[in-house]
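Appendix C. Worked example: Cohesin subunit SA
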Amino acid sequence: MIPEPTAASRSSQQNKNPHDEATSSGAVNHSEEDSGNENRQKSVRRRKRAHNGSENVKRKKGKAGCSRRVGRAGGSHSKQKHVEAVTLFEVITMGRSAMQVVIDDWIEAYVTDRDSSLLDLISFFIQCSGCKGVVTAEMCQSKEDSDVKSKMVEELDEVAGLQYKKFLAFPWILTVTWPMDSDSAEYPLVQSGPYGRWFHSEFCEFVSVLVGQCQHSVIFDGYLMNTLISLLTELSNSYVRAFRHTCTLAAVKLLSSLVGVALSLSVGIENSQKLYDVQKKKTARQKSAQQLERIQKKISELQEKRAEVESMMDVIFKGVLLKRYRDVLPEIRSICMEELGLWMKLYSSAFLNDSYLKYIGWMMHDKVPDVRLKCVLSLQGLYGDPVLLPKLDLFTSRFKDRMISMTLDKDNEVAVQSMKLLVLISKTSDDVLTPVDYKQLLQFVYSSQRPLAATAGELLFSRLLNAVAPASDTQDGVNEEEQLKQQIFARLKALLEFYQDSQLHKHVVYLVDSLWDCGGSLLKDWATLTSALLQEPSSHSSGFTQAEQAVLVEILVASVRQASEGPALAGRSGVKKVMNAREKKIQTDDCLKLTEHFVTVLPKLLSKFSGSCDIVASLMRIPQFFLSEGPEAENTQVASTLLAEMVAVLHLHSGPAVLEAAARTYLNLCGDETAWCSVARASRDSLVQSWMDQLTTLLEDSVKGDTFSADEDKTRETVSTLKKLRAFHNCHDLGQWSVFELLSPLLSVESSQGGAPTEVLLEVLQCLSYSLLWSLNTSGETLTCREKAVAQRLQLRLFCDRSHRCLSHCDLSVRHQAFLCVCDVLTAHSYQLNVWDPTSFGPLLYTPSPKLQRALLTFVCTHVFIGSDCDSQSRAMTASGSASVSETSEVERLEDLHKRRNLLAAYCKLIVHGVLEMSMAAEVFMFYMKYYNDFGDIIKETMYRTRQTDKIESARTLVLSLQQLFVRLKREQESGGRAQPGVQTFTSIKELARRFALTFGDLVKFRECVVMIHRNGIEFVFQEFSQTPETATPPYLSYLTILSEFSSKLLKPDKKAVFSYLQKNTAEHIIDLREECWQPLIYYRASLLAVAEGEDAVSYVSSDRKPNRSPLYKQKIEGSKSPGPFSPADPKAGKAPKLSFSPSLQERTADTDPFSVPLEPPAKRLHTEGSVLSTANDPDDGTVEVEL
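Step 2, the predicted output written as structure tokens:
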């Protein structure tokens, strides 16, 4: 039972006498208006207006028992009259200045009447917990009362819908009563949005101000703090989350404020002790015994107060934190760890020891990231103070492994802060981390998270690169410069050694990005880096090896890219996406500096390393980052020198990396906005013309009639020239050189009659496809008349026809390349048709021939969906589990899978862009489940795109794929079990149908599609079927079992139409439900009827009907003339199954496999008369009645 207020309490409320209320008992009633939700009702405008405290003059009139007026004492100051009607809870909304005024008034009232003022303070904490109930106070004469502990309860009254907590806050026994559903409501601390954060900060500020204003007066009266600590300790142990969370926060903030009081007392003791020592050292004439005694007395008083404060802190720590640091609520655990770290840092003499540090060490294993983060941040504050390090030795040795392992934390912020903690430890203590630890931590410079990688880069820079001894002091300025240069070379040596030891030789850009924030000055010292590359080995300097020079060039190029484009890298997240004005200014200045430097130095580098293909390929990428505007932009002489060196390099090398870098660099230099465009274009045109002349000469000698005849040297030279032409044609429009007319005859040569070599065909196919792509891309500019459009279509047709022949080439790579080129050209042509402006000339319509379409489909089926019939994932697991499969074969398998995915994606683009009929995707869709792990994402995206184009036709394609699979399965069964290509089991077909059905998420949007699927399936089964004694059932009747997977996607109105359509198609046939051969029909009908009742077909067919009926019941059913087993008026008609068949069939349903494909009807017969099914008049409630 909830205790009622005593008579004295009621009389005190009626008389409104605070002294009577404090001596007997009191009640504080929190209505919904003035309770925990009161702060939600305050407008933002009033909170902004009340920041000075003096503008909160007018308040709502107070209610009796709801709030106690603070301004009791007479003679208050003028500013106090502005807030004299403000309660402690309301003052939270008014800022720090108003808090100080109201708390000062509360202290004055406490001195006058401490019991009633304490009740106000208790009411404040109850309100801050969001409680809407009643607080009743009873006097307690003694803590040792035997009945006190028996009264401390926290129970529920389910009948009254209330819950209450009774606890001791001496000298009162407080009873808090509130509604049961208040625990689920949002209390102020956990409210979402800015209000929750604002309330948290203001609540903590209130506790701090309260202790700060009381520290010189009532805090040591032995009454206030005892009551307050007792209140917070009891409420923090409540099972109610709001009480526990709010009062735990108040308790730890109270302890933090007491730490401040203890620190101020310690300062006072130290100052008094200094004064005492000064007085004691004075001579006998100057020394005053009375003054010494007074100082000693002050020191003793301060020490007693500090001991009392430390006792309070110890009580709070043991009563609150020791119980709540393992609380089930992660917010409470975070609060405890955050404040514990603060206490250790501020008051290390009392808290910084192993008995307190162990709690932070334990909670670093917490399962919630925020708790682990608070532990790491607390440790950062401790390790950042060199004075505290000696006290952390044991903790470091015990929890060092855990701190290192937290760099692998799944939460990114925890991992970053853990790495920062270890960086701090490495700077303050050299012997804590071992070389093994450093080796593990430094590998994080290659992390995918940039904040973590940047922090690891700081560790690398401070550990390795800054470990180089500084340059020695000399008098000669030249020697100083040389010493600084040697120091930079030593840092570069250390960086190269680390990179080579890490054995991750393809991640230079990530290493540079990690070091950019801390070592950007070193990486942007391009003058020193290039001088290190250009210097020759001497007697006093060994220089860099060839391998080190290659790595140094990669670092140089990566630093240039970083300065020009910023830290955005593929595969690395956590990058700041928007740069401010200062960062943009720095980026522009860096681009200007690198342009001025490399435009003169780069030709020297290219000349020196012209024999190394890899180094030259990296160096030729640098001009891509040049700034088009600058002091050197008008100097065409330096640009001509650079281009001449690039031409010289292209004459020596034909590797793909060099050619791609050169083509992209020319593309950047030939832009209209660059000052070097005329020089660069002239150089490019000269290069291309020389290649075309050389290629024309070679082909005139090699191609004679229908044969390709060339020796090995000419073939090698032809391939080299074609590679250069192909690389530049990929980036530049070379239509003026008539590349298509020159190279297209090579595809007409039959391979059986001495055709072109494989290497030549691969390059020719790509060059021709690039030529057509550029022609289509520039159609709006080049097609000025119909004759040119017709010529373009003739080129497209010629290319497709000749590439069609290459699809049957003996070499696999040629077949793949021909397929990809045809798909790319057809996709680009379709795109240009869609974006073409009808007011101008454009590309003419071209449709691939049916023969080419079939060839493309056959190519996909034979080159993409290959392998055993088992799932690709199981094949991969088997391959990885086999001991004979090496790592090389696994890499080859992945590369082969990547090629097959490209082929499938190219074919699906033709479907999506409308080049091929949508029905040609049926062959692809049927492999959706079989190759789900390899190609499931591509096929699913194709379904989504085709459904956006035409959802009805897309649904027909899904049905077509299911029907083709079913027909193949039937043919295999009829052929005696001989294996047929592309045949799947009945279970896999049914699973495929289920996955197809799951793609129809919005039932209203795809309503027509689902109905069409059912109508098409019914027609597939019953159309063109004539019943004979030999063929009693349709041959494809089992397809209805597959079709039933789509029944759950039917809307209630549509299921009647589908059911009627099914009855219409089955009305001409004699259906004997006693035969098991009709089981698929029964299963399908059940799936249609079960839709309305939320069941599936299996549960519907095997519903809990009683299998054994009495003969009287059977006669009753057979002789019944009602339209159905249940009349429409029967209340159970909506729940009972609508399909009636014999009990023996019901018993057998659970034993027969509904997914099997019956080849012949079973011999076993049923013992009841057959029934003809027909639909009765549709009832108004949407159900379907079945007439027997």
